[in-house]
């Protein structure tokens, strides 16, 4: 039990290190996916945890299962496995659909990455044809449609288009309240159960039950911390996305203001020129 305690206490720290490593590797491989040093580090990370020889990766361990919930891992796999071409289009969608069967982190960044990849792999005509075949797309796109309209509907290339739709905050709040009540009832039952255990004789059988209960509690705490860490990363990406959008909008406004100022100055200059001409006459 002592050794297990040490492993559990270090698990969150190890997962954070893996997140940071994947983030660094993604930045380097997105610039050059043949970078040998980055590829070697990625292979070392995956070695005893995830088998990625086939198109769809599979976990080799508990750590591998958790690595496969990290969006950056799937983004790196897509960079390494997908090139342009008809078959690559299908392989790409297969990989993304497979990734969405898991509770991924980094919602906003992964959505942006997905749309950028679709833009490279599909022409607008190809994308619209496939989008309109999705039975969940009730209002079909007309041809020709603008590129922006096609991009905004890339989610309908997926089996689970709702994954990349905006989150209904009100519904999420209601679900959270139900879960909190359920946790409260579960906690009360556990407390009552523990009180009963302390009243019983401390036999070997009860010691074993206590050990199993402690192990389950530790695992539950670890999973809760992992979920909180993922949520933190997800919120971080949402904030990055909002900041980037705000900067872009601000830049557009500034360029617009500069353009207006130039027009006004040009107009004034022209008026002064006309006045000088008249005064000479």
Explain this structure to me?
By secondary structure, the protein is an all-alpha fold. It has a domain at 9-121. Helix content is 75%, strand content 1%. It contains ten helices and two strands; from the N terminus they run ααββαααααααα. The chain has helices at 2-31, 36-46, 62-67, 71-81, 86-99, 107-121, 124-133, 147-152, 169-199, 204-280; strands at 50-51, 58-59. The chain has a two-stranded antiparallel sheet with strand order 1-2. A hairpin with a 6-residue loop joins strand 1 and strand 2. Helix 4 (71-81) packs antiparallel against helix 5 (86-99). The longest helix has 77 residues, at 204-280.
The end-to-end span amounts to 103 Å
Main sheet record: 2 strands, antiparallel
Quick one: how many beta strands?
Answer: 2
Radius of gyration, in angstroms, nearest whole number:
28 Å
Order of helices and strands: HHEEHHHHHHHH
Widest sheet: strand ordering: 1-2
Report mean pLDDT, rounded to a whole number: 76
Helices, by number, come to: 10
Overall shape: it is elongated
Strand content: under 5%
Short description:
With 281 residues, the chain is mostly helical. The protein is built from ten helices and two strands, in the order H-H-E-E-H-H-H-H-H-H-H-H. 75% of the residues lie in helices and 1% in strands.
């Amino acid at each position: 039990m002592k050794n297990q305690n040490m492993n559990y206490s270090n698990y969150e720290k190890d997962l954070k290190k893996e997140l940071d490593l994947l983030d660094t590797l993604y930045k380097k491989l997105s610039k050059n996916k043949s970078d040998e040093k980055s590829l070697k580090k990625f292979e070392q990370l995956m070695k005893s945890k995830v088998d990625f020889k086939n198109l769809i990766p599979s976990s080799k361990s508990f750590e591998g299962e958790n690595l496969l919930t990290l969006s950056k891992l799937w983004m790196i796999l897509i960079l390494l496995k997908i090139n342009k071409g008809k078959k690559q289009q299908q392989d790409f969608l297969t990989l993304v659909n497979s990734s969405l069967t898991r509770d991924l982190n980094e919602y906003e960044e992964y959505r942006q990455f997905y749309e950028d990849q679709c833009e490279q792999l599909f022409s607008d005509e190809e994308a619209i044809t496939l989008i309109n075949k999705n039975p969940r797309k009730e209002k079909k796109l007309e041809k020709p449609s603008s590129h922006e309209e096609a991009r905004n509907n890339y989610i309908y290339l997926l089996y689970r288009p709702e994954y990349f739709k905006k989150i209904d905050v009100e519904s999420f709040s209601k679900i959270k309240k139900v879960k909190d009540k359920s946790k409260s009832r579960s906690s009360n039952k556990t407390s009552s159960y523990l009180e009963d255990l302390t009243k019983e004789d401390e036999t070997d059988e009860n010691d074993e039950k206590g050990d199993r209960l402690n192990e389950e509690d530790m695992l539950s705490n670890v999973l809760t911390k992992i979920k909180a860490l993922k949520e933190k990363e997800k919120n971080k990406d949402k904030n990055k996305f909002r900041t980037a959008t705000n900067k872009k909008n601000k830049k557009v406004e500034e360029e617009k203001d500069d353009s207006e100022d130039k027009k006004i100055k040009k107009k004034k200059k022209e008026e002064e020129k006309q006045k000088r001409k008249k005064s000479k006459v």
